[in-house]
Amino acid sequence: MYKRVLLKLSGEALAAGRGFGVDVAFLHTIASEIAEVQATGCEIAIVVGGGNFFRGVAEQAAHMDRVAADHMGMLSTVLNAIALQDAIEKHGLFCRVMSAIEMHEVAEPYIRRRAIRHLEKGRVVVFAAGTGNPYFSTDTAAALRAMEIKADILLKATSVDGIYNADPKKQKDAVKFKQITYMDIIKLSLKVMDTTAVSLCKDNNLPMIIFSLLERGNIQRVINGETIGTMVTS
Predict the structure, then answer these.
(1) 37 near 220, Cβ under 8 Å?
(2) pLDDT of residue 119
(3) What is the pLDDT confidence band of residue 15, given thresholds at 50, 70 and 90?
(4) pLDDT classification of 90: cutoffs 50, 70, 90
(5) Alpha-carbon torsion (156, 161, 162, 164), positive or negative
(6) What is the CATH architecture of 4-233?
(7) Strand 163-164 and strand 176-177: pairing?
(8) Cβ(122)–Cβ(38) below 8 Å
(9) 61, 90, 171, 218: which could form a disulfide with 69 (CB 3.0–4.6 Å)?
(10) Is residue 93 within 8 Å of residue 35, measured between CB atoms?
């Protein structure tokens, strides 16, 4: 269905309900799904969040300088990227971590042409450290990297199975959208991703699917074109 995809994984999803840290068993489940998808010929790039360790906009950073807090959040994504790389390589794939903040001992610096070349050679690429700039979320980094590598679609895997008109974890009568536009997300103030990322996708006609990471096989299902989650278009 798709030749090249950008998969956004939230840090909270990697914790698999623990709230903090990485669930190694769940991480290997994700890695095995990625291996199955890549075996079909799909090129996969991944952006990871860091919310399972630290979030610059969370309550824990309330009394910190925003720039310092965001830098801590970016470094948290590097921890997740390295853990994911290890799990992916244990499934027999070649994987490269590329960081927007240079740290040569643990990751390659992000260079767009090199990232595309890795994908063309059949390697999985994990983008870490967001955009490298404070005030920009990993959602925005995912939208930006997806357009830079010319991905066919942005896939956002979360702990929720789509976009709802309210938080389904708090309101049982929340209604799920099967399809929605980026403009409607902005108008309805839906908290599926930050406004900068939504606007970036909208302005560049990048389609996105929000789906649950918690159900085994969903990554392959969504790439195969099955109707799961919520499709977002311009």
Answers:
(1) yes
(2) 98
(3) confident
(4) very high
(5) negative
(6) 3-Layer(aba) Sandwich (3.40)
(7) antiparallel
(8) yes
(9) 61
(10) yes
Identity of the amino acid at 27: L
Residues 6 or more apart in contact with residue 131 via CB below 8 angstroms: 100, 140, 141, 144
Provide DSSP, 20-71: SS--HHHHHHHHHHHHHHHTTT-EEEEEE--TTT--TTSGGGTTS-HHHHHH
* Residue 65 CB contacts under 8 Å (≥ 6 apart), including other chains: none
Domain boundaries, the chain: 4-233
Distance in angstroms (rounded) separating the CA atoms of residues 195 and 206:
15
Give the per-residue pLDDT at 146: 97
CB 70 within 8 A of CB 56: yes
- What's this model's pTM, rounded to 2 decimal places? 0.92
Where do runs of H (alpha helix) occur along the chain?
11-15, 24-38, 66-89, 112-120, 138-148, 182-187, 195-203, 218-223
**Are 44 and 228 contacting, i.e. CB atoms less than 8 angstroms apart?**
no
Determine the average pLDDT of the residues in 4-26: 86
The residue count for the chain: 234
